[in-house]
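ok so I'm stuck.
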Amino acid sequence: MKCVICSREASKNGYCELHLRAYENVVKKYEVWKKASDVSWREYLNEIVKNPLTGEWAKEVAEHLLKSGEKGDVKES
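replied:
not stuck anymore, here's the structure
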């Protein structure tokens, strides 16, 4: 199976190892952002995409999550 973002071989959750690592970081860091600014999941993903300091893998994951509407392991209150 291929990664949902690129053409590499997928390892878990439909992502290749590089995008999986970025996905896990995006989800993990959301809790920090949410506590600091009470930002929604979609707002957070939009901030990742706009931020010039965000890595390319994380931007690709955020764009994919925005398009797919996926929430993954995120718990929104």
